[in-house]
């Protein structure tokens, strides 16, 4: 619920409209939902992550474009697409967030939803393009209801690794190691 509500709510409150370029920085636990929501909301969705191997997944999730930040400058690539109205930063890496700021269009917004350390922002970049950086939290109970309704209607699904309750410590270790793909969920079923 938390990842879905956070990404859905940030996107619907971002000011982006269908047809706008929207970047999703990171396609992990938050980002894989962010890409799906952005695509289903009608945005020209651009997924940004490290490594060529994530490109096919990004496209499968609904991204029209994939930018491998290890191979190309993400800000320059977003600029080639006309600049992003919004970039949802789902990563926990402040340097990765800083690297996409120049890819915002005039009046563009970097929506920070991934907890990272201090973020370095060039004031000239903000002033010259009337760009902004905004944080977003999860949401309220009605936001949860809206997220679930939209997800059911649009076919947005969380990708999970499911562990039985008896393997809770193993599931926890997998999650904490950073090796889990998207979400780790405990099942009470036997």
Structure description:
The chain is of the alpha/beta class. It has two domains: 2-135, NAD(P)-binding Rossmann-like Domain (Rossmann fold); 159-190, no CATH class. It is 38% helix and 23% strand. The protein contains eight helices and eight strands. The strands form two sheets. It has a six-stranded parallel sheet, sandwiched between helices. A two-stranded parallel sheet has the order 7-8. Helix 5 links the parallel strand 4 (84-89) and strand 5 (104-112). Helix 1 packs across helix 2 (31-40) and helix 1 crosses helix 7 (141-154). The two termini are 23 Å apart. The mean pLDDT is 92.
Summarize the helices and strands and which ones pair or pack.
Elements: H1 2-12, E1 21-25, H2 31-40, E2 44-49, H3 55-61, E3 65-68, H4 74-80, E4 84-89, H5 94-100, E5 104-112, H6 123-129, E6 132-135, H7 141-154, E7 160-164, H8 168-177, E8 183-187
Parallel strand pairs: 1-2, 1-4, 2-3, 4-5, 5-6, 7-8
Helix pairs in contact: 1-2, 1-7
